[in-house]
Specification:
alpha+beta, 14 helices, single chain, 389 residues, two-stranded antiparallel ribbon, 9 strands
Length: 389
């Protein structure tokens, strides 16, 4: 059973897996944090975090999983993009959880929490309360409210030590972009798509939320202290997967955008095709700009706000082929050309960094804007030339 099916199945049967009302906590609990290595799919490439609770007297061995979502949700992708998709806390048997990770060749690490019994009881009580039907759904946020941060927060709440990670969070001075891009090394197209829509927050220092990545949380937990004692001194490997096969040659976004730049330059030598090319080119890139700007404004994801990519791939370019006033068109082309070139030239100094392929796409747009301002065979001036004849 693949990972998506397991998630959906877990959501459907989790109520029968462990009843909140029937839960009786003994005084013999073992609570640990589970960290799962990155998977091969985009939704799993950053890894996963969960909490394991083992009750020796009552025979429970269950996993509290904050990473549950249902692909059958109406308008799933639209809701995710707009930031109105809820994730849920679910419960499943540990052996099923481990088996699924093994089937997907994802390593699993366990850190047993060393804390007084009262704190363990508190932690499990908090989880059970969060699992109640009225509480189990939460609004997902990539950087600040996901499976890892939810686990971090419940551990902190159970111990009452709100500064336990202050000196353990080694990644806090890195930006969010610096933290997540290494995970997408073999997913260059996915990274290109993600960095098209992410905004200014991506290049802010992550601080406390560097632990949005499961591996960072695992590292921080191994160094976290309560009353000067390590809370998770040992990291045990429950299952170690074999390394994935290395990928061969792939056509990357940078290669694709370089090709587009060359086409935008070369099309000028085919006067009969320039008008058609520019119409299609500005419609496509303009629509992409509208999509990016809409997400930046309408989405509740703070990660998408203030996206300066829209200055490179300007939304209003979509309407350029339909405007009849040639003087206005030429002035518009020069103004947006200057804007795009300025953003590209100043990109190292801007608060938001750009994927190299995004900069190349912005350059391609700038090239066509420039040619449509200065060249007589552009689609902006061709109709005017015919009229003069």
């Amino acid at each position: 059973m693949n990972f998506i099916k397991r998630i959906v199945l877990t959501l459907l049967v989790s109520v029968s897996a462990f009843s909140v009302k029937a839960a009786v906590l003994s005084d013999s609990l073992q609570v640990s944090m589970l960290t799962v290595s990155p998977g091969n799919e985009l939704y799993s490439v950053f890894g996963h975090t969960a909490i394991r609770v083992k009750d020796f007297k009552n025979g429970h061995d269950i996993v509290f999983n904050y990473g549950t979502f249902d692909f059958r949700t109406p308008n799933f992708y639209l809701k995710f993009a707009l930031g109105v998709l809820d994730y849920q806390l679910s419960i499943e048997q540990f052996q099923g959880f481990l088996g699924s990770c093994m089937a997907e060749r994802r390593s699993v690490y366990e850190q047993k929490l060393v804390m007084p019994e009262a704190n363990k009881q508190m932690l499990v009580s908090l989880l059970l309360d969060a699992y109640r039907p009225e509480n189990r759904a939460y609004r997902y946020r990539f950087f600040t409210n996901n499976c890892a941060t939810k686990v971090r927060d419940v551990i902190v709440a159970a111990t009452g030590e709100y500064s336990m990670f202050d000196n353990a969070n080694r990644a806090k001075d890195s930006t969010f972009r610096m933290l997540f891009t290494p995970y997408l090394f073999n997913m260059k197209w996915e990274r290109f798509g993600i960095e098209l829509v992410l905004g200014k927050m991506t290049d802010e220092k992550s601080g406390y939320d560097a632990m949005f990545l499961p591996n960072n949380l695992m590292d921080a937990l191994s160094k976290a202290k309560v009353d000067e004692q390590l809370i998770a001194p040992v990291t045990e490997r429950l299952y170690v997967a074999k390394g994935a096969d290395s990928e061969g040659f792939s056509f990357t976004p940078v290669m694709a955008m370089l090709l587009i730049v060359l086409i935008t330059l070369g099309i000028q030598f085919s006067p009969s095709k320039v008008k058609f090319f520019d119409t299609i080119f500005f419609l496509i890139t303009g629509f992409l700009g509208i999509f990016i700007a809409t997400l930046s404004i309408a989405s509740t994801h703070p990660e998408l706000h203030f996206n300066m990519v829209a200055l490179l791939i300007f939304p209003l370019n979509f309407f350029l082929p339909f405007v009849k006033n040639m003087k206005w068109k030429k002035n518009y082309c020069m103004a947006i050309f200057i804007l795009a070139i300025g953003v590209i030239a100043l990109s190292p100094l801007l608060p938001q960094k750009f994927n190299p392929a995004v900069l190349l796409l912005g350059l391609a747009v700038a090239i066509r804007l420039f040619y449509n301002f200065v060249m007589p065979n552009s689609f902006l001036t061709k109709n005017k030339s015919k009229k003069n004849d």
